[in-house]
Design a protein that fits this description.
The protein is an alpha+beta fold and 264 residues long. It has helices at residues 3-6, 15-19, 22-31, 65-70, 124-127, 143-147, 154-157, 205-213, and strands at 57-60, 82-83, 90-91, 94-98, 105-106, 109-115, 131-138, 141-142, 164-171, 183-188, 191-197, 223-225, 247-252, 256-263. 42% of the residues are buried. The protein binds zinc ion. Zinc ion (ZN) is lined by residues 59, 108, 110, 139, 225, 227-228.
């Protein structure tokens, strides 16, 4: 539905402003007219990121044991590697992505958390209360720029245009059968290449939010890419990367799917 119209502009029309008033929005939504007549039809290609203008985008590395192993690293103990995907790389769920020339572009399906309340130094037991909801993300990564040195360039290698598709929508945690155990995966041209479960996160959502807030303040609308399970292209023998003409479909159980086509 058109939230801005239905709420007489109490919320929206800019999506990101809704997160600043998330509790009020949830209360309004509970009493809103969600009947068939209020609903709009839309195509997935019309959708943008469910949080299109986050103040901060966090991305987490090595957060599944099998992925840490295929990457040649030990599992993180205190804090997992934390970096950013620059906001200019964000897109909606159904897109065409241009492959960087001469690059090795890889896939990483991830559960993405959207923050709903300002959070600083929150405990694990209360951390989910600061989460507006979850969505599907792809942490597309160009491995040559990311790893060419002298030190790794995670932020740049993962921030080409369209390298952070997110969506197709936000799902509030109460809609999920088990918010801490969701199947997630992705397939290239119909061949499944990643197939995991979020119960295998070394730092599950609550612990991750809590640990991040011991250092930084999180703001409504912020995104956290929580890490990818095993099966990325760089960890394969032989290595495999996305090619022009490939279609990548990424999914999370109970949330939805992303669809990216790749061109030269
Ligand atoms: Zn990642």
């Amino acid at each position: 539905m058109d939230v801005a119209e239905a709420s007489d502009l109490a919320f929206g029309p800019d999506t990101h402003t809704v997160y600043a008033e998330w509790d009020g929005f949830r209360a309004w939504a509970d009493s809103a007219d969600l009947s068939e007549t209020a609903r709009m039809t839309f195509a997935a290609t019309e959708l943008g990121s469910p949080s299109p203008a986050p103040r901060q985008v966090f991305a987490i590395g090595l957060n599944y044991g099998a992925h840490a192993a295929e990457s040649g690293f030990a599992e993180p103990v205190d804090l997992p590697p934390t970096f950013t995907k620059f906001a200019s790389s964000l897109s909606g769920p159904d897109t065409v992505v241009t492959l960087p020339a001469g690059g090795n572009t890889d896939w990483e399906v991830e559960l993405v958390v959207v923050i709903g309340r300002t959070a600083h130094q929150v405990g694990r037991d209360e951390a989910w209360d600061y989460v507006a909801g979850v969505t599907v993300g792809q942490d597309l990564s160009e491995r040559i720029v990311q790893l060419r040195g002298p030190a790794p360039q995670f932020g740049l290698g993962k921030s080409f245009p369209g390298f952070a598709p997110v969506g197709p929508w936000l799902v509030t945690p109460d809609e999920l059968a088990d918010r801490d155990d969701l199947a997630l995966g992705c397939a290239i041209n119909g061949e499944t290449v990643q197939d995991g479960r979020t119960r295998d996160l070394i730092f599950p959502v609550a612990r991750l939010v809590s640990e991040l807030t011991q250092v930084v303040e999180l703001y409504p609308g912020d995104l956290i890419f929580t890490g990818t399970p095993a099966g990325v292209g760089i960890g394969r023998d032989p290595q495999r990367f996305l090619q022009p003409g490939d279609e990548l479909v990424s999914w999370i159980e109970g949330v939805g799917e992303l669809r990216q086509k790749f061109v030269e």
